[in-house]
Amino acid sequence: MTETRTPPFWKTRQVLLSSRPLSWINTAFPFAAAYVVTTGRVDALLVVGTLFFLIPYNLLMYGINDVFDYESDLRNPRKGGVEGAMLDPGLHRTVLVSGIVTALPLLVAMLVLAGAEHPSSWFILAVSLFAVAAYSVPGLRFKERPIVDSITSSTHFVSPAVYGLAVAGAVVTPGLVALLAAFFLWGMASHAFGAVQDVVPDREGGIASIATALGAARTVRLAITFWALAGVLMLFTGWPGLLASVLAVPYILAAWPFRSVSDERAETANAGWKRFLWLNFLTGFLVTMLLIAWVLLGPF
């Protein structure tokens, strides 16, 4: 009788996959960029906060999602790779515990390092963590409330930046408000477009979403509209932020071929979603260059 052996580090690999490694930068970078640009310094809070929003935050967010979406994930061909782990039920507790255990020490350190100087940062962090849990946990399941699902998902990505600004004592200006509003619309568009490819498995699993409610084609068009509006808002951020308005164009082009996709062929939008994932790296690089220009040339 042949003994089946578990490959070395298999459990660790599955836990990491559940945190969506390709998306780590999407939450860590907004916090780090907001904090550094506002304070102009590298300190312990920057390091701890970046580490928190890099891995534990994503492990909590996506791990909780993978655990409570297990039944629908069984019908989803995308699961089992970089776009999300197909978690063995035996790993569900491990993933949830790993998220909590890795997050708590960093959260405590962030609160201690931030102190009571900026109390609004505590509220923002609480909202961020609530959104992480509320998206997937039974009893709340914001991910099954059309439109609210996209709003909650966008909060996941924008709140680290808002927290970074708050804890750094940033001054609120019209340009900053326009920037955050553009970022929020980008987040809503990204979630909506990402939901399109899952229309069929979500419906089979009894999971509602913005895409199952509006239909694939209408959701793609809504995402394109949100990206376009985000680009327009960037025009009001001042120099050199207004240059970022053109960064909406690649996302619109990635989604454009699927603007009339039928619900039955919604899974073909996965091709556009994969381009979206890689576009984030290019956009991140260009945004970094703009932030450097911001520091050198002055505020918006």
Topology at a glance:
Elements: H1 10-18, H2 24-39, H3 44-54, H4 56-68, H5 70-73, H6 92-114, H7 119-134, H8 148-167, H9 174-196, H10 199-204, H11 210-214, H12 216-234, H13 248-255, H14 270-297
Please report the total strand number as a whole number: 0
CATH topology of the largest domain: Tetracycline Repressor, domain 2
- Ends distance: 70 Å
- Global geometry: globular
Q: What is the CATH architecture assignment of the largest domain?
A: Orthogonal Bundle
Subcellular location: Membrane
GO cellular component, one term: membrane
InterPro entries: Prenyltransferase_related, UbiA_prenyltransferase, UbiA_sf
Keywords: Membrane, Transferase, Transmembrane, Transmembrane helix
Any descriptors?
mainly alpha, Tetracycline Repressor, domain 2, 0% strand, UbiA_prenyltransferase
Structure description:
- This protein is mainly α and 300 residues long.
- It has two domains: 18-168, Tetracycline Repressor, domain 2 (Orthogonal Bundle); 171-299, Four Helix Bundle (Hemerythrin (Met), subunit A) (Up-down Bundle).
- The protein is 67% helix and 0% strand.
- It contains 14 helices and no strands.
- Helix 4 packs antiparallel against helix 6.
